[in-house]
């Protein structure tokens, strides 16, 4: 009662080894990607700070001395009275 071709042959061991490496590789890669997703920072998420507004740019120019106090006050008044379009 000898049955043939029911045991794992040489190629069966090769495919079994390949499957094991593939399984563990996918498992480790999935775990690493999950950790990377959970612990990413805002800069990794593509969130960028909003560009500075007109009042901020005007205040920076005044702080650098490019404009004087009167010009700063005039331009700031114009910015605050006109509605954004």
3D structure, described in words:
The longest helix is centred in the N-terminal third of the chain and has 29 residues, at 10-38. The protein has three helices and no strands. 0% of the residues are buried. With 85 residues, it is mainly alpha-helical.
| Run of helices and strands | HHH
Give the helix proportion (percent range).
Answer: 55-70%
What is the number of strand segments? 0
Tell me the fraction of residues in β-strands, as a range.
under 5%
Indicate the radius of gyration in whole angstroms.
33 Å
Sequence-ordered SSE layout with sheet pairings:
Layout: H1 10-38, H2 54-64, H3 69-81
Transmembrane segments: 12-39
Keywords: Membrane, Transmembrane, Transmembrane helix
Protein name: SHOCT domain-containing protein
Offer a concise description of the structure:
With about 80 residues, this protein is an all-alpha fold.
């Amino acid at each position: 009662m000898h049955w043939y071709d029911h045991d794992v042959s040489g190629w069966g061991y090769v495919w079994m080894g390949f499957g094991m490496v593939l399984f563990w590789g996918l498992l480790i890669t999935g775990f690493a990607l999950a950790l990377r997703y959970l612990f990413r920072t805002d800069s990794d998420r593509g969130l960028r700070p909003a560009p500075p507004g007109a009042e901020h740019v005007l205040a920076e120019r005044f702080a650098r001395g490019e404009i004087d106090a009167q010009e700063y006050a005039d331009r700031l008044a114009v910015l605050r009275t006109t509605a954004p379009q």
